[in-house]
Design goal:
142 residues; mainly alpha; Eukaryotic RPB6 RNA polymerase subunit; 5 helices
């Protein structure tokens, strides 16, 4: 188990202080200790162990005031007018007369390549039954 820094009366308070400091580090605060640690929580715990983080216990009234200030700051941040960037207008493509003629020629070629269209009302031819095919004699080979 970790030893609590001097002045910290419980593990719970120690973790709360470290979490708040880690939030500050994530938000861009500079670390107060040097080391090879990269994770904000690890840096925050190292700062607490080195007694580099100033903190004090607050009363319930002070805590309420701090909460109200944080809520007001978040609301102000949410209501900041965003710069609305309008996209440039979309212009229809310019179609040259030559291009239209080429497209018509391509359509005609496509129709020619498809081949003739067959009439759907063709006469239905009955297929030979398998038994008839088996009984037919094959032409003799010479």
């Amino acid at each position: 188990m970790l030893e609590l820094p001097q002045g910290v009366d419980s593990t719970f308070r120690h973790i709360l202080i470290a979490a708040k400091r880690a939030e500050q580090l994530i938000a861009g605060a500079r670390p107060r200790v040097t080391g090879r640690n990269v994770k904000p929580t690890t840096i925050a715990l190292a700062e607490l162990a080195a007694d580099k983080v100033a903190w004090r216990a607050v009363t319930a009234e002070e805590y309420e005031v701090i909460l109200q200030q944080e809520v007001a700051a978040r609301e102000a941040e949410e209501h900041i007018p965003a710069l609305i960037i309008t996209p440039p207008p979309v212009l229809p493509p310019i179609v040259e007369p030559e291009a239209e003629a080429e497209e018509e020629e391509e359509e005609e070629l496509d129709e020619e390549l498809e081949g003739p269209s067959f009439d759907e009302n063709l006469e239905v031819v009955e297929e030979a039954v398998a038994e008839e095919l088996l009984t037919e004699e094959l032409p003799a080979e010479e």
